[in-house]
Specification:
Layout: H1 12-16, E1 25-33, H2 42-55, E2 72-74, E3 83-93, H3 99-106, E4 113-120, H4 128-131, E5 132-142, H5 149-161, E6 166-169, E7 181-184, E8 189-198, E9 203-213, E10 216-217, H6 220-226, E11 232-243
Parallel strand pairs: 3-11
Antiparallel strand pairs: 1-3, 1-4, 2-3, 5-9, 5-11, 6-7, 8-9, 9-10
Length: about 250
Amino acid sequence: MFGVPRSGRYDLQAMTARPVDQPRQRWQLLYSRTDPALRMRQAEILTEFERVFRDSSLPLSRTNALHPRPRLKLAAAPPVGVELRGEIVEAYFDELVPIDRIRAAGQLLSEGLAIVDAREVWHGFPSAASQLRAAEYDVEAFGNAELTSDALRGAVVRLLASPQLPGRRRRGESERRSDAGPRDLRPYIEDVEVVDVDEAAHHARLRMVLRLDPSGAGRPEDIVQALDLPLRVGRAVRTRLLFVDTPPIAR
């Protein structure tokens, strides 16, 4: 039974003491990935952050596993070839690290990766990854003479009104993988909006909010192909992540 000790006093030191095997400080870092790092995968990004923290002599914490790993975690897996502007990586340190040293370490990142913002957060906050629900994209699409403002807006209305949208399941980067197969795209779409159409150039910009959670992820190229217009995807940017409970760094 929990209550006041028999002495009538709480041992504040015992209540606030940090377990010796737990990190002392937690940071949430907002980072971006642009060219020439667009094809850098998740493991490579984590290795890059580990390298710059090590080179900066920052006390990055490691797990207590048989084969310890650095306590670094991305909120979302980065799609290859897509520019990222508002991604989150969480880093844990064994000692207190001031923000100026975090910023200095960010200057050592390879070209195309950058720390945009950083915030120290309480250990008790849920991880950003556990709260992830969707991602917002800015997508370029190219077509032919059929691409008009009215035609594209009509196609988007029909897409959002569709109860089902046949698509392909792609856990990897290739549809030739054995795990490729049919799936319904509609549950992965929260919103699609026409931002701009240049009819003379046969070019359009779309804003998309696509589901991104452990059950799966929507892909901008799949949504463009699902529109009933002959379109191909150009540049795609994941502008921000969206959460059930927004983490401090994204507020």
